[in-house]
Every structure is written in structure tokens, then in C-alpha cells.
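seq as requested:
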Amino acid sequence: MKKMIKKTLKWLNDESVSVFAKYHFQKQAKKYCKINDIQQIDKEYKKEVKAYWKRYENLPSTVFHRWYTGVNGIKDVRYIPENYFYDVIERYYNDMSLEPAYVDKALFKKLYPEIKQPCSIFVNMNGIFYDEKYNMISKEAACNLFQEQDRVIIKPTRDSGGGKNVRFVSVKEFDKQQCLEIFAEYGKDYIVQLPLKQHTQLAALHKESINTIRVMSMLENGEVSILSTIIRMGVGNACVDNECSGGINCGVDENGHLSDVAYDGTGKIYTKHPQGFEFRKGCIPCYDKIVKVIQEQHKKLPYFGLISWDFTVDENEEPVMIELNLSWCGLNFHQLHHGPLFGDRTEEILNSIKQNR
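C-alpha cells:
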């Protein structure tokens, strides 16, 4: 009986993700096509897309191909529909039952001690305070540590997607009551860190935000490959770089050079940053170091075949990991910049998933 209940609950969970992914991402793509006045794709292209994807989906949609092609001008039937990526591909490669623990920012320094990370002041896990070495401390001690800083960044450890509830706070003049009020506001499961000083080449893009390099890697047969890289940057006075917070993103090639154009969340094209930086002149400092760290570290996470890593580079040209994503890894901007995620291996990978799923 217990086994049957578990199977039923798993089926319901899988179905809920399927329904959400199909409805949400197709609706979103239609919205972006409308915003950018993207016309329907021609009949021949539509026919080719449907014929290709009928092998993998019952009712394939062409709306993603319409959006990608309408934005970047490149026709390719191998673009992965977003709903298929999240519903099928991501869940095929990643064990979602283990995902929550591996992406808990409170545990990053325990799980990934070999990767350089932002300096932590203290962390709150399930309502309990710990210092940077994971020694349990009192609320008063945490408040004292808080007041000793000039400026800090506070963020949830378990759900800060899209920059949600991420705040930079100047605490030099804070009294104890103000500290306690912020603690109460966040409740539990949050981390307090010192702000990073990013490399001047990254700051040149947009100095108000930490501009992060998003790298998607794939672990397969004991080898790690880099599928795609983009860089995300803030706009205006924004302290975060997420697209849903108004940020824009630019493609990065295998040598760390930036693409000629960037896109906002809807796919609107920018040839230079609203603050003036020309993307074609940009380059990620020590990009090869970032790739090397990812290739070494992904091998230590065998339950996750696909990982989206967020890195920046500090003033000493050292890669610094901000976070990693094991679900809802982000797909559309990789494909807008670089074409189909799996490139020439698309059919091989899709057929393998179909046979072994």
C-alpha cells in the first residue's frame, strides 16, 4: 500500500510539472513574440519543426522556434522547446529528490570547500545562527557580527531565484533593534555575506551589480563538457543582474569573448549596454580558470548531469562561485545566443533520452 501511494504521489508530481511547463513556457514565448512583433514562421519551417519534434512530443509547438528565429534570425529545427527541457531533459539528467540540499546556500562551504566563494559573516539555518565556521552562535552574537560590518548582502539560502529578497544593507549606523528587525524580517534560512569586489573588466559592464557568468555544463560518461555560457548584468541602479529584475545578458564564446549583442528578458536586442558599454569589446577575465573549476567540480556531483553555475571574477582574477542551479536551470538565452543547446549532438541525446527514460 505504501509503495502504491509513493508511486501515485510521484506520478502526480511529475504530471504537475509537465502541465505547468507546457502551459507557462508556451504562454511566455507567445507573450515575447507579441512584445517584439515577431510574425509567424513560414509554412515550410513550421512543417519541418513539427516533423522533427513529433518523434519526441505528442503535440509539439512551434512557438519557441518562432521566438528564437524571430530574435536571432537563425532557423534550426533542433532548438529545444523550453517545456520539453524542464519536463523531460532536466528531470532525466538530474535527481530532483536530492536537489534541495545541494543548492542550499547555507551549505555551500561544506559541500564545495575547494571553490572560492563570497566571505560569510554568519548564516541562519532553520532558525539557528552559525558563524562562518559553522559554530552555533546566539542571536546576540550574530547581531554583534552584523554591526561590525560597513556593508553586507543578505539573501535567502533556499529560495532567492531571480534576485528575490536579495538586499545590500549599509549597517555601520545600525543599532541592535534595527538588526533584530532585519532578522525578524527574514525569519530563517538566510545568509549574510560581505559584498564582492569584482574584476574591473566585469565592473566596466555595469558597476552597480555583480555581473555573473552563467555556465551550463554536462556530465556524461565521466566527462564534463561546457554546453553554453552567457554573462548577466544589471541595468540602471539595479544591484542584481537577473532578467526578471530588468537585467540583460550577452553570449560568451569558448575563449571568453562577448557576443556583439545582448538581450533583455523578452528578447529585445541591445548592441551596447544602456550605460554605454559596447559588448563586442568585452571579454571575461580568466575564463579558462572558470571552465577548469567547473570541469573539476561537476565530476563530484554524479547525481546531476546538467548544472548551471553562476560565477564572477574578483579583483585578483580568481573565479568566485555565487551559486549553482540544478533545476529550472535556464535555457532560452543560451539558445538565443548560441543556437540549439546540444548542437550537433541534439538528435543523439534526444534519442538516448527517449530510449532510456
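The radius of gyration is 21 Å.
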